[in-house]
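Two quick folds needed for the group meeting slides. Do the first one here.
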Amino acid sequence: MAQCVQSVQEFVQDSFVPMVAVLCSDEAERVTRKNNLNFAELLRPFCRLTSEGHIRDPNNQVQVVKNLRICVNNVSTSPNTASAALNPAQRRLLNEVVLSCQSPEGAATNVITAGHYDLNFSATTPWFETYRENFLHSMPASEHEFLNHYLACLLVVSSSEAVPVEQFLKLSQEQHRIQHSGDYTNPKWFIPNTLKYYVLLHDVNEGNEQRADTVYEDMKQRYGSQGCYLLKVNSRTLSAEDDEQIPDPWSQYLHRNNLHNQDTLDEVAPTENSPAVENNISAAEEDAHHPTDNADEVSTSLDCHPLQLDTVSTEGSLHALSAVNAQPKKSPRDPEGLVGGGGAGSHGACLTLNDHDHIRQFIQEFTFRGLLPHIEKNIRQLNDQLVSRKGLSRSLFTATKKWFGGGKAPEKSISEPKSTCGLLYPPEAPELQIRKMADLCFLVQHYELAYNCYHTAKKDFLSDQAMLYAAGALEMAAVAAFLQAGAPRPYPAHYMDTAIQTYRDVCKNMVLAERCALFSAEILKSQGKYSEAAALLIKMTSEDSDLRSALLLEQAGHCFINMRNPMVRKFAFHMILAGHRFSKAGQRRHALRCYCQAMQVYKERGWSLAEDHINFTIGRQSFTLRQPENAVTAFREILTNDSRQTATQQGAFLREYLYVYKSVIGGNEVSLPELPLPCIHSSATRVYFGHERRLAEGEKQAATHVSLDQEYDQDSAAMWCHLEEQLVASANRGINPANFQPTQCCLNSQTDNLRYPQAVVEEPIIVEVVFRNPLKVPLALSNLSLLWRFTEEGVSPSEETAEESAITNEETLAQGMTQKDDIVTTEVIPDFPMSPEETKTARLRLLPHRTGQLNIVGVVYNLAEAADGETAPNTEGQQTLELMVVRGRQELKIQGPRLNVTKEDKMEVRHGPDHRLDPVITPPMPLMEVFFLQFPTALLCGEIRKAYVEFCNVSCVALRGLRVVSTHPDFFTFGSQTSSPLTPLSPTSAENCSAYKTKAAPCQPGSVASETLVSPKEFSRPSGVMEIPIEGGTLQPGESIQLPLWLRGPDQEGVHEINFLFYYESTEKGNKISHRVLRHSVFICASRSLSVQASACRSSVPSHHSMEDKGSGGTLVFIDVENINTSEAGVREFHIVQVSSSSRHWRLHKCINPAKDKDCKLTSRERAKLCFRATRCKPPQATSDAVGKYTFTDLNLGNEQIISSCTPCGDFFFRGCPTPDPVASAGISSRSRSHGPPVDAASDITNIVKKCNELDLNLIVIWKAYVVEDNKQLILEGQLHVALQTIGKEASSLTPKEEAQEMVLLKFKSELPPPVALPSAEMSQLIKTNLHYPETYTHPFVKESLCVVPVTLSLSNCSLAQVDVIIELRQKSTSPECAEVHSSFTWVGQTQYKLQLKPQEVLCLTLQACFLQAGVYNLNTPRVFAKPAQQGAMCETSQQTASPALIIINNA
């Protein structure tokens, strides 16, 4: 239970106090009325004694009476029978008392931390204490106990009466008549001989003090000094100008008189049953969906205190809501009515502080000299009566259990009435005398004697089956046992349990059961037995009283939270139950408080259904209590959480929310409130700057650029950024500016949003907002638009005036005024329906018309529940639907990325800015659109195709500096600058024309190739940026230009993504945006065409035999061409129409193909081999002008020569074969000759050796393919490139596919690096050998057995270094077979030579071969070993030999 102001002992003592009645004469009543009080009310604040009293018990032991309080009431003779339940008026007033006592603002709160819970709730519950106090004082006097029967009666007469003594006599007779005539059941009197105490009331201002003293002296003679008192009051005059502030101690006590006299209200509403009375407040508001005007009456009753004293009318009280208009009857002794005062004003206005002391002294005198001796005397008399009646000992103290426990039932006639809970005793029954004595002892705090008497009476009652009496005795025995000083015996809780059970189940008296439970729970709580106290309180809840059940459930909840191990969830659960019962009892404020306290436990703990219930109830209660903001907040919680409710329930929640929200807004729609639905996924908001791209128009295909339909990809963004860097560097003389920022047309959560984005005036800004409907019911959004704030250019956002100068569209959106279209045009989406649990994006547009700073703040829309087809059962139907549309807004707040740079960032959670919704509007910029015509989607590998590209300036600003860069620079060309191709410019006339520049040249057998010298500078570099050649360099507003574009199919088959980035600038300088870019991505499907393999070998023809290239050895080039097309593209056959070469050092000389076909045709899977001779370029051409130039040679196999050095063949050659930079290669060779720092010998030799075998010959194989498509024959053409770098190594037009790498074992020990070993393949090609001999030789073996033939061995040093050469002619016979084979042929003369050859020297040796018989012999047996001369330690490497050299020896 909650903390209480009083201790449990004080609470129990104050619940049972001696009762004193008051009878006043009319004149005495008039005297007290001057103070706005009656006599009983006048005494009430002074009824607690400040000093101790004493009595003697029957054993003559002195008992101290501490802190005694007496209760003084006017005599009321209204028929108030002790009933089993409170009457409606009492219930209503208890309801009012609880309603008036609310939790004060800023009251002390308990903060309890239990596990993961931090709970904050009120430490005290003053409404419960007030209820308890009023409940106990409103209990009617009953027959089975005497605690609230009157012990004494004060007879009060004014000293201004003519004959005061006569008045005393009249009052005394009146008291006697009331008590003994039998006409009145009320009030009840404790003992027949009631103490009468005579009080003479003297008004100091009006009366004669001497006369009063005389009368008082007479009274003392008559009644004894112990039985009368002269009380002087009203010492202060109202007219006196006295500034002294006299305290008013009466206010807090006066409502008790009200409660005690409420039985007169019984006749007001005799038909009301108790629940209806309690619920009369909430009855009018049961349908919280459509609260009636009664809610206003509720609030008025809350504004004015229901117990306030300055009004007699009950209109302000809560029961004014029920249709009760009758006024309560006035008590005959209380002529001014119930509330104790007619006029407004303070109480005790005529009393001074001395008068207060007089009253206090009077009470003390009356108690100590009148009341306590009277009680003591009666205790003795009762004790003596009981002892004499039993015929035993003089004192109860010496009695044993058998004296009281045994014996028969009291003598009663059989005709005595029986009650529902056993028999009823006559007043003089000895059992009642024991009970009466016990009650007297209890009232004067003699708890030990009281306990013994109660215990004895209990046994008697139980043996008689008088259950009501027995329960009362058990209850008081338990309380007396608890209150005994020093606690000689433990508190008998089982007594209380039995009493409660008897009251409730046997006697059906819930009032007494409730009183018993209140005491027991308080006692158990004081002993720390919270669990037992909670169980007891919960047991006492029932359907007959919602208010009682609510209060007890709340106290049970406090018991659970105050346990040693707090039971948090039980606390919350019982708070919910209490809130529900408070709500039923009409106590809406208390209900709301309970639900709010319970919410602390359930919030964000996964109890979603419980949260929904609590929030819904809080919302309803707040709304009916005129707290609409709290109601809206609570309903928001239901709708924003991921609800697990059914669709029907969610629909009800939504309707309730819309209704409440509508009433909150009312007519005030200037500032739009936040709406909870639908949820906005703020971080997923995307912003797009610029027009959405136009789609293809007819044959034109528009550049893809960037759109909101594309998914953002980090790698792709990095690729575009890299391309843009190349473009910007190209436009800025190869340097990227320090402030370069990549263009971002579309911003999202993954882009860099730290800077303010730049938008262009008159270009739209599209914001894509992601909405999610969390409910299972559809939503209807309408008039959806963006909310923005705009600051004109020139006003700094940090200035104080910024807020004033900022223009916003909130008011216009809220009130439906005309849009501010002159600043920013805001697009409105009229309808935006959302299905249940749907995530949907809305694209909202703004079109800025002025430069400045734009801030996109949020979205504004109308929210309604979508009509499901079935309308709500409503008479107004349509009208209600319209009302349930509310307008509101939601902020677009985007949290920036988490910062992780400084130590503080890492220690705390900090987020950077995200400015994607804060664009800076800049002046106009050029805007270009790009269209492609005849752009293919599929090509053969290496196929050349001509397309057209159109550039349109669609803005009002001229553009210049048009450039393009691509991820595949070898895929396209705009043509070289020098050679304007002789191909048609218009797309229509180019259908069947070749993309190549050609000239007629019939193929002559053995004809020599034509040559052209070309500088690579004429063709733009493949890695670099291409400037697009437009006339004048600028494109004016509205202009468009069409240019040819040659494309070449990629060498690898498959689908290729090719990206273009176009760059352009404004002709006007000084713009915030320096340039703009346009993206285009295409997918090309490349299918297989031809595969070309080429290899070169040194010609074995001696140099002096080949007349054309004296001084330089020729090289043979073999080209293998295979048709690897799978005929999917409908290709019928391929024709090789030309082979061209391009190199700085070598050239194709002529075709030495044995077959003299014009061109070779290849159908599917066929292969052909072509053979060419290549020679070095002629030395006279190597002038200074020709350094670094390429020699292009064309060998056409058909009737047309394609000029390979022109566009597009030359362009694609330079793009397809990346060649070494001539300056760099020249630098390497010069460095090797210079006498600079010594170069690593091994690397130097490697270069020498490589140079020896370098060929650097690039082949271009040009083909035509005949394709049948739609019964039409098309001719496709294309070119394949093969780069022959080294003699003896085969090169291919297809790049080999990467093999999957084999798994390599991990090595944990570092191994020594292997010694540098030159590749043997390259070292074996230092020396070229040729044998010169007669093909046939005739020798007469009969005449001469030995035939000696002279053979010349020519050695050519292919390298640029001196070479040591060893020639060995002897055959090393390792096997007998070899000996047999070579036995008939041997070299004679010197068989081993050691020579040194200078760089590129040719040396001839004359050898002699000796044959023993005729036959065919292979002379190519000499073995040649060579090594560079500088390498002393190195072994000579065996040189490659030429093909077999066969000689025929004939016998003459």
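Then this one, please, same format:
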Amino acid sequence: MVFLHQISSRQRPPATAGAPSDGISYVAPPKTSSSSTNNIINTATTKKSKASGKEGENADFVLIDKMISLLAEAGVTLHNPGGPPCLPSDLHKLRRLLEQRFSSEDSLLSDFLSGLNAYTCNPENFRRVLISASRDGSSRSESLVRGLLLVAPLQLKLQQMLLEKLPEYFDVDMSCAASLEDDVPRLILTQFRWLDFLVDSEGFTDKLLEVLSICPLQLKKEIIGSLPEIVGDQNNKKLVAALEQMLQEDSAVVVSVLDSFSNLHLDDQLQEQVITISLSCIRTIDAEHMPYLLRFLMLSATPRNVRRIISQIREQLKFVGVPDSRSVRGKKLKGKALVDNTESLILEALRSSLRFKNLLCQEILKELKCLDKAKDHKVIDVWLLMLIYTSGGSLQKSVVKIIKTKIIEGCFKEALFDQCIDGHMDLVQDYFPSFLSWCEYLLACKEQTVRQYGIHMYTSLFEEFTDNYSRQEILGALVTHVGSAVGYEVSSALDTMVLLASKYAEELIPLSSYINGMLDYLEGFNIEKLHKVYEVFSYLVLSARSSADSVGSSIVNELLMIIRKQVSNPDLKYKKMGLIGTLKIVSCLGNAENSNFPSSQKTNFEDALELLKASMDSCKSLSLPLILFYDELIALLENTPLHPAVMEWIGKHVGMFESMFLSDLEGGQLPVKDSYCGLEGELWMNLDGDLSPICLNILPLVSSSTQSTSSIQILPANFLLLSVVERLTNQGSLGGIDALLGCPIILPSPKYFGGHGWLSLTGKQKQALCLSLYYAISWIRELLNAFSTQVAGRINGTSQATREEIIAKLLKRLRNLVFLERLLNTSLKLYPVNLPELHLSVEHPESSFLNKRNHLQNMEKKNDQNKMCERDSSNNKKKQRTKMKAAENSDLNGKLWQPTILDVLKKSGAVTTQQVQNEVSSSLSHMEKASQRGEHTIETNEPAVVEISAVAKVLNAQRFKFRPLLVDCLSILTLAKNEDSCCADPAAQLPLHLYLLHDLHYKLDYLTTPSKQFPLGGLRAPAGLSRMTVSEFVSKIRALFPSLRKHFDAALFILKEGAETCQEHWSTQSTGAGNPDIPDLVVSNSTVAGSVFREILRCFSKILNLPDIQTDKAVLSDLLGAFQPVKVRYSLLSSIQPIPSPGNIDYLYCGAYSFLEDILESDLSFSFSITSEVLVTLESIVTSVTLHDKLREGKGKHTHIQSVQGVLPAFSKRLGGSAQKLLMHQQENENLENGWRNKGEIIQKILQIYLKNSASNSDPLDELACSILPQVPSSKTKTTQDTVHSFPTLCPATFVVWYRVLHEENLAVLHKLVKEVVMLEKHRGDVQLETVKGLLMRLRQSVNVVVSLVNMCRTHEKVTVHAMAVKYGGKFIDSFLKVFDFLQTYFRAHDDTIIQLVKELQKATRTIQTLCSEAKGLKQTSITTKIPATKRSLERFLFQVKSLLHNTSNGCSFWMGNLKHKDLSGQVVSSQLFADEEDDNNEEDPEHMEADVDNQSSEGDGEAESSA
């Protein structure tokens, strides 16, 4: 804005010393020749040239005298030696007198102007008549010229004369003028301001603009800024055009032009023209003028133009000063201060405007919500969100939600944030608290992507702000996150701390007091978080020891003191902290690369060795801490090269393994057969035969552990440490300990697992038997972990024969493992034992620790119960057996039926109930075979059938205690070997493959769904993944892809052909692996094949949708290439344009889809469960294609990721068709309802796939909801066989599933329509009539669906159905409210359609009201909890309809009143009425309000007219 200085009252200046006595001096004006300036004559005429002569001078004298006389007659004293002329006190009298004289004498006006012109040729005289004059008896006020300008006959001529004199002063430097009275141009402008009237406004404006066009820049700015005060409103159009022309010629006047625009009173049309002019200047204006332009535009915003203003500002504003600061940080940029100052002024202009107009904030948020591509977002977007957030208020939540959404969608990249803050510390300083608040919000979000962005923001702020205050605030915020007790938030905060400590350890040492706050929360941390905490401090310790700073030394001493206290604490919780802290410090101090930093007394590796010895001494008598110490030391050895002295000490320690756990053999046999706890021991699983020199003492160590503390519990961890040390010291080879792979194990005699042998055992012996099996399982798992490294990659010095021998032994050990686990599972079912923990790993973030403890307590109670029974008499034993037998017989199939993989997965949530149906039927067939063989029912204390194909369900409850399989073990899947046997039966290998596939699936679950609660068997994360990234995991399993296809084909062949299992084949291989002969061993061929089939499909789906694999073309190509058919269907390829080329990613996607689609169509006839799994896998391929394209779009045009967008429509269409075929599948089962009852969840999934992938979402929804679903009979009225529709999967048993899915999908369709309506409103001017009509038709379809679904409650009495109607009906109404602005906009063009739409929806709202009323009366809490939200939506809908009809005013009648209280059948209910008022038809339940819309008259007697 331009503000002119007001003319303040001042005293008259004294007369000039050289002035004549009459006060009138004639001095040449500025633009005269130098010869004439020397002639000073005391006359009242303008200066003439010497050639003008005496006559001209005399004429000027006459005119001046005449002018002076006229003014004197009017009371003006022109000759005032002390200052300006004196004016009379009554100026109105002066004006009237002059007007009368000028009107009476025509020539007087011209003579007066000539005289005035001659008089003012003298600059001093001109200045005197322009400055404020003196009135008689009053203070100084208006000037003489201003008084004359208010004389109507004189005004226009005088204005022109003044404007003509203005150019005479263009070349005069007025910058040195002491005051306004000395600045003649500004004095002239002052005369024109705020005149009471303008005689000829147009003529004056033309003259003024003519002079304005030739004015110098400074005077031009002054005049432009004063135009609103000079020119009348009737000339605004001309002014706007002239100012636009000036802007085009010279952008330097933009500030004055904007000032003038803002003060002009413009109509709507001119205002829009001005906005357009201003918007066009954004690209061309100088940066220093940008704040003024933005402030003008923002403050000029109205509901009509705000969208255009915001859009243009976002598109055209180039936010200056965004260099890549990472290349210039620490350097002083030339002109940087100016740029930052300009940017700060721009931000301040935007912030003040946003605070002034809330409309701008809402429009900005709306504009940003509509953007869905990363390339459309700019730096100014982040700043606009920041300015809105800084302003406070209710919009802060909206801002952070938008930021979160944009990050999840990939629209806000990290580079966008870097451009905002990097290198702009001065600019960001004022907004630092708000940026920090954003970081706090993002780091507390559940989504991993959002938290990663928060970590990046924290680190960027820390890098940018080097002052102590800012960094203390950042560290304080991070410590607050660490103490939040929210797992994912704590983990992300610790990741941020680790990142900062790794980069800026030296700078963090002075701020260590803030970091020490993390130590207060150690008690609540799991092992993973403890690693991160101590990693932070290890960086600080290493940095502190490398410097002689006293502060750093105190940090080291304090940390070591804390760790020593923790290690010496007898409580496992604190000892665990100390051990992890010790080994983290050792990883830094003992690192071979960091061992050269000298300290005051000892070298770093000596301190590390001392810490190791102290930790080992504190754990010698405690098994779990020692196991943790070994595991942590293993991880340290594999990731950190330690000093040779440290490695030597570790080697000496593991050298004691042989004396602790092994015994010598003579000719492969025990020298002496002893009894342990009364159990005879035998050698099991001897792979080396008579050549084996040693054996593992499991049973002797278990028997000793029941009496005193034993080392058996640390056996697996100790061996794994031994193998790691051997590999590191022997160039990766395990040749020094290869005898352990084939050595036998001392275990209880197999005779104890028979019926009579088991009955003869005491409780203590049964416990020893179970524990022996448990430790044998853990031993074999560690053997697989250790020796799988020898075949996973090439080891120097290992021959091919040795490698093949190791492979053969690994396969046998895997067969041993499968056998032992099933045997232990059978034993635990008969005698529950609380197995000791052999592994302390990272607890899953949401694992149910309480459930785990309760489960173990129940097992201990059962165990105690069994011990008490053993002390009773034989009669009590018999009674106890009878009771337990009766308990087992409570399930008719409990005797022989064994749990399958799907039972366990169903419990964990990984597999649905419906997928178990196939397994049940196969298990029943085995029970029939068993009964035909004359097998008898096993009593309580006798071992059950050991079924190799079944998952160890009881054992899985304690699987978290097992030693985990590492990722290298999965390479055994590639080592399938054709062994010599009686036949070529692939099913003999499938149980081994299934075991590893199940482990692969478990690891993928952990990687892909970290927030999902695992089953009891998965309370702890696998150690092989706790410190492994997704990309590292994918690179390790990449070689498995061809093997997965191979095993998949084998399983599919068995499922299709139904090949019989050769029992002798399995027995031969089991005997070759050293497994003892168990008579009750059953191998279920079809169950294993089906489980392998499903596991591979699930693993394929999970691997395919890993984000890391989408960005790695080679890995993705390998995965898809492994599942290619012999020939891709031409019908699929031809439906894609352009047709994919072989070798491209899109072609590989087509091949994988075609391969699975062939299986789906061929298998549809024999297994609904199998085909449904294939369909879900096909959907995962479509999901992968979508994710692939999103990642490609996020990477930009120049990415290496190939586009696969063309295949998505073809895949979706075919997927929808396949889902429809599956829904129409007729199950071959006599009892169809029972057949579908257990398949509800998978039917739900198939139905969702069908609806989401149909060509039109609305059409199948409309057909199913309005035509198909109403045909399903109520279970109380009709039988299942009465259905006449074409969907066999839709029956009373599955009605609720279909009903819920249709509600959910219809709600999703409405949400999409709402988004389309919002986009349509944004581009309202370009909307086609057909587009609006199409949207209304789709809205009508959606309304029809919800009305049909809600009205089904009248025939279906299930409370679940009614609850869903109330819940989803309320949500539908709530979303439908968002389209009322759209309906109001197009009401006049489509009034009939919209009225019918509302009336149709009214049918559903009335039914919902009735459902709510009945639920309250019947106290159905499953419904009443949903009523408040639904009621609010119904009330809002009621008043929105009223507002719609009121605003459109089309004559439509509207009533609002109380509905009659009716039940679902339409009968009137007495409700709250008294008995004597029941016959009054005009009374209604006041609790129910509803509206009725009609074009004619009132409907029904029960509605009172409220408005019309």
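Slide caption for protein two: The first helix runs from residue 53 to 73.
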